[in-house]
Design a protein that fits this description.
32% of the residues lie in helices and 14% in strands. It has 221 residues and is of the alpha+beta class. It has a four-stranded antiparallel β-sheet with strand order 1-2-4-3, with no helix packed on it. Helix 3 packs antiparallel against helix 7 and helix 5 runs antiparallel to helix 6. The longest helix is centred in the middle third of the chain and has 17 residues. It is globular. The two termini are 27 Å apart.
Length: 221
Amino acid sequence: MQDWIHELYRDSNNILVELNKKECLDIEIFQRMANDCFCLQCVLQDKEKARILYSIQNKVSLHDFISQYVFEKEEGYQFLIHLMESAIAINRNKPVYFHPKAIFLDEHGENFYFMVIPISLQEWMFTTDQIKEWIEYLYKNIQTTTAFEIPGYLIRFLNCKEFSLPNLILGLKNLQQLYHPKRFSFLKKKKESSFRVQEAIHPLYIEEIKEEVSDNQTRIL
């Protein structure tokens, strides 16, 4: 995993992180984040120390969600395809931190929110290794009662020369059609059902303050 940040503090409402290379702080990234619904809201708490405070109120991390939920039938496909599509949408022009504890969902799993790290371009141009570690985490930890082909496909795809998130989405859709073919496809297609859990998923135990931090904040967003 690329060593962009270290975490200072986390509770049920906020995460405070600090850049490991403070000189790489890029304030312009905040402007790109301002109107992006896939970004976690955040403030620049301390410019000199390059500390950023992220709001995670009423959200659950990808790690906590996958640890608690077992996907039924085609839910695993719906979930992963939506996750990858959301990741592509936000990662086009922003440095996303692809870590299972830095990606969040609402409590019913309908929407994704990503931690964007405001660092300079040269630090985040090449994130393939980080994304591969993230996919490896998914195949090791995703739980399913029926679609056992999904973890196997994910691990095989990691070694493909054509590895990319768009190709992964295409592969998942083809795999879904193979194992769960839609009958009467010549008829008018119905809108694919979106993933949503009936009972809210809540964060697991959160470790409180790790390091004493200042309350002084400079609001950016």
